[in-house]
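[audit] Reproducing an earlier prediction to check determinism. Same input, same settings, fresh worker. If the tokens differ from the archived copy the diff job will pick it up downstream; this log only records the rerun itself.
[audit] input (423 residues):
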Amino acid sequence: MNTADFPCAATTPAGALAGIKVLDLSRVLAGPWCTQMLADLGADVVKVERPGVGDDTRHWGPPFLQDVDGNDTDQASYFTACNRNKRSITIDMAHPEGQALLRRMAQQADVLVENFKVGGLQQYGLDVDSLQALNPRLIYCSITGFGQDGPYAERAGYDLMVQALCGLMSITGHADAQPGGGPLRVGVAVIDIFTGLYASNAILAALQARHTTGLGQHIDMALLDVGMATLANQAAGFLATGQAPGRGGNIHPSLAPYQDFRSSDGNVLLAIGNDGQFARFCAAIGQPQWAQDARFASNTARVRHRAALLELLVPVMQTRTTAEWVALLEDKAVPCGPINTIAQAFDDPQVQARGLRINLPRYAGDGIAQVAGVANPMRLSATPVRYRSAPPALGQHTDEVLQEWGLDAAQRAQLRATGAIGA
């Protein structure tokens, strides 16, 4: 599917969350990732930003967006990763009239998402108790580093800190004894992203519960909780045995062979997950007896005799190019593939066929013609994701949104004159 087919198709059915109003007080990544999911599904997400400054990630560059002449602007590309399909308004929540305006908007909202420190919004009258007293149907989602209670509740939390604290870095990277060994962070802020996904799931559950109860609820999301949860099989293994796993590079602790190898011209991955795949692999390379060897006949045996298996495999894998390995194995249902750069990934024919790059036109009048992004992977047949708008310029929709939410031109002018809303 061509990327040009995606954006703003007028004939596309309304999204699954059409009619849901979301007040987005979050910034950086976890909260905005959550609200982008809701926006992609059709919710009207109003992103509230600080006048003149905006979300921190607007300034996290380089890299920066380029204008129509190919010159860098002052707008970082980071912001665009998690803010499409939203409308940006600028309100000063430190201003009493800005606080009153946000309380008024919260009375009309279905969902509010915030990622301030615990108790940080209480001074503004924007905490969960204050707003749910005004709107009992409000679903209020708080995202923090460590949750609303516990000894670390007052601490600020960042993805890197949580990757370290939850143990993720202890299982990421090469072992200490190997070249380049030592703990590593994952190359993307995965705890933030997973927190956004868990938060959006929790909000959907709360919306469904509201159909029955008529009431909203408070959602307490913590990066640390998510970090522990996403340890998945590694946490399960520790809980079962009491033995903490270590770093093994690209080797899978429970599968073999399931790792990268040197090919004759680079690197190639084998991801063999069962005994049938291993037998087909052995036949393809002219070594069918390996699948009958007691050391390698089952996955458990291969894991236990990994060193002996690798002693045989490493020289064999260097006899073909990466492309030759892929060509040899792909019709034999043996998972095998290259290790792409991001540029190579976007050039991959399957990535292109799935339309995973999207180009969204920008109408902010700031010299940026369009913003490229990555498609949402959720494919709903009846209520598909729609790409209505590019990530907004700071305050681009202030007048539009406030008019829709009940403020006339005179009221907006008065708020602007006092500094409660941005110019």
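[audit] rerun output stored. Observation attached for the diff report: Residues 258-340 form a domain with the formyl-coa transferase, domain 3 fold (CATH 3.30.1540.10).
[audit] end
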